[in-house]
Amino acid sequence: MIHAVIMAGGKGTRFWPVSTPERPKQLLRLFDERTMIEQTMLRLQPFIPTERQYIVTIEEQVEEFARQVPGLRPDVFITEPFARNTAPCIGLSAVHLSKIDPEAIMVVLPADHRISDKDAFHETLQTACNFVDESDGIVTIGIHPVRPETGYGYIQYERDEFRPGTHRVVTFAEKPNRETAIKFLETGEFLWNSGMFIWSVQRILSELEEHTPELHSALMEISDALDDPNGADRIYRAYQSIKPISIDYSVMEKTRNAYVVPASFGWSDIGSWEEVYQLDEDRDVNDTVQHGPVVTIDTKGSYVVSRTDLPLAVIGLDNVVVVQTDEGTLVCPRDRLQDVGKASEIIHKLKS
Amino acid sequence: MIHAVIMAGGKGTRFWPVSTPERPKQLLRLFDERTMIEQTMLRLQPFIPTERQYIVTIEEQVEEFARQVPGLRPDVFITEPFARNTAPCIGLSAVHLSKIDPEAIMVVLPADHRISDKDAFHETLQTACNFVDESDGIVTIGIHPVRPETGYGYIQYERDEFRPGTHRVVTFAEKPNRETAIKFLETGEFLWNSGMFIWSVQRILSELEEHTPELHSALMEISDALDDPNGADRIYRAYQSIKPISIDYSVMEKTRNAYVVPASFGWSDIGSWEEVYQLDEDRDVNDTVQHGPVVTIDTKGSYVVSRTDLPLAVIGLDNVVVVQTDEGTLVCPRDRLQDVGKASEIIHKLKS
């Protein structure tokens, strides 16, 4: 059976002052009245029904998730004691799933994507799942790049199909500088690494065993402890021993079984206010987005939003993000949004 | 006797979001725990004692003044039904004073100046009052210019003293463009027009009669009505008929009796957030002023203040003013502060 694991453990500090440690990005209602996690879950249906969807997140966020997303079944959560990057998170999920369904095909999805064409999304997933079913490969969804983005990893792939809709991966490339990104685009041989993966639980566990044996040992200890009614401490200690490592670095860059299915759907990674600005079609003649009691004078290409009753005035600044909420106010040029997380962390320390 | 008239009818919209229509600039506590009007009153003592100080303001502000500045005597206010620029405001004050003391010497002061040396300030006023006493001239206080400011009027004066500390005025020049302001400074013959005036009430009333006979007629009607127990309506109607006009345009630029006493004290006109920034000595290594729960990253030459408990983060912007209060948030480059009043007015309309 096909199961979905939605990775939702991020802190979303880049979305301060809308996101906070208590209200992470996955719980934001950035585009409509639904949280990003709900949008991700709905988007999978009916291809993967709700009862085979899991949310993997860190322990301190579970309560808030349950409060903000009513109607979740109690066993929807796969809980990490604390964040250890993507490989342990995925490994833990595979251990959980293997107990529910040892033959499970596992679709791993970040909770912060925006996808415009649900049918095409399901078709792409179907292609990937069919391939996994036949060949037991490690599959990633690739996105046709539309700009020399330096914030994503890239996948070099064989242009000829290996199976219908599926291509062999030549290499994974980490986030490039701008010059390299431009070269990648010129070759036509590179896709963006979306962070969406499809594989069988057995295959990913054996890949982790091969490439990260220490992590695999800890996962096997956790697997045992899950069957032990008094195993909570063992799980905690085993997880504590794990070194943080990404799935790209631990498995994708090393495996000989990597394949890519290029996406046929519109895709955005909601990584910063930039994407929220880009996806908002409600612009004025100056290409500025304004929501709430906002006044702008000579302000071009900007995102100016007050999520409170209090007015917000921006004068004579271009390409800035100004967001006011009942948590505070952010003022940042669009090309400095990578520093919002840093500011958010300083503010969090000020408060505690 | 010497009497002081403090002009305090301004709206201070340039200080949004700290100032509001209900909390004009004169009532702000920008530098210490005292309002600007209290600072102005204290600064005059003992040269002009409290009982000979008057505040001229518009009717809608009187109640708030009385609330914010406790201990004011009931007859401290000279009340304009509505704002009509400086000439009617000064004329009305002269009419009031002439009933209290027909021989009064009248010292007119804006409520939004910051003056660093009180003794030197009193000496300058004494020089001006002595001259008025002897010659019945029209006297203005001139400020030695320290930059080619385009926001002030200028006074060209005879460098040789006419009487000790007092010079004849050659001409009044309206706010110049930058090029002209630079030329003014180069000649050494120009002072800034501070908007502080000293004259006898009889002299200013006769100057107004000569240069603005319509205004003078309205003032005489008001003078009559003040002696009429049922005169409130007459005062209102007479004031309504008055055309707004500045004292510079109506009298100073036309009189043949204009003199200037150059100030020997440090002086700032608190006209915008720029002066508040300039006068604040509490700067970080980036020449940025920070007050309240504020985080700045790579922010030079800026004024970043949160007057609430809410954090405020500014990243990667230089020479900006960002002020957050429980009325809202302002984001504005220091060289665009002249537009704050415009934004404030739009916001005020949004709210009503």
Radius of gyration of chain A equals 21 Å
CATH fold node name of the largest domain in chain A: Spore Coat Polysaccharide Biosynthesis Protein SpsA, Chain A
**Uncertain parts of chain A:** none
Q: What does the oligomeric state look like here? A: homodimer
H/E topology pattern of chain A: EHEHEHEEHEEEHEHHHHEEHEEEEEEH
Q: Order of strands side by side in the largest beta sheet of chain A?
A: 6-9-7-8-10
Look at the structure and give the mean pLDDT of chain A: 94
Q: What is the beta-strand fraction of chain A? A: 25-35%
Helix/strand/pairing category of chain A: alpha/beta
In whole angstroms, how far apart are the ends of chain A?
46 Å
Tell me the number of strands of chain A: 17
Number of helices of chain A: 11
Biggest sheet details of chain A: 5 strands, mixed, barrel
Name the CATH superfamily assignment of the largest domain in chain A: Spore Coat Polysaccharide Biosynthesis Protein SpsA, Chain A
**Gross morphology of chain A:** globular
Describe the structure.
2 copies of one chain form a homodimer. A 5-stranded mixed β-barrel of chain A has the order 6-9-7-8-10. In chain A, strands 12-14-16-17 form a 4-stranded mixed beta sheet, covered by helices on one side. A two-stranded antiparallel sheet of chain A has the order 5-11. The first copy, chain A, is α/β, with parallel strands linked by helices. Chain A has helices at 36-44, 59-68, 86-100, 118-135, 178-187, 201-211, 213-226, 232-241, 247-252, 273-279, 340-351, and strands at 2-7, 53-58, 77-80, 105-110, 113-115, 138-143, 154-157, 167-173, 190-200, 258-262, 267-269, 289-291, 294-297, 303-306, 312-315, 320-325, 328-333. Helices cover 35% and strands 25% of the residues of chain A. Chain A folds into 2 domains: 2-269, Spore Coat Polysaccharide Biosynthesis Protein SpsA, Chain A; 273-351, no CATH class. In chain A, a hairpin with a 2-residue loop joins β16 and β17. The interface between A and B is large, with 37 and 37 residues. β15 (312-315) of chain A pairs parallel with β17 of chain B.
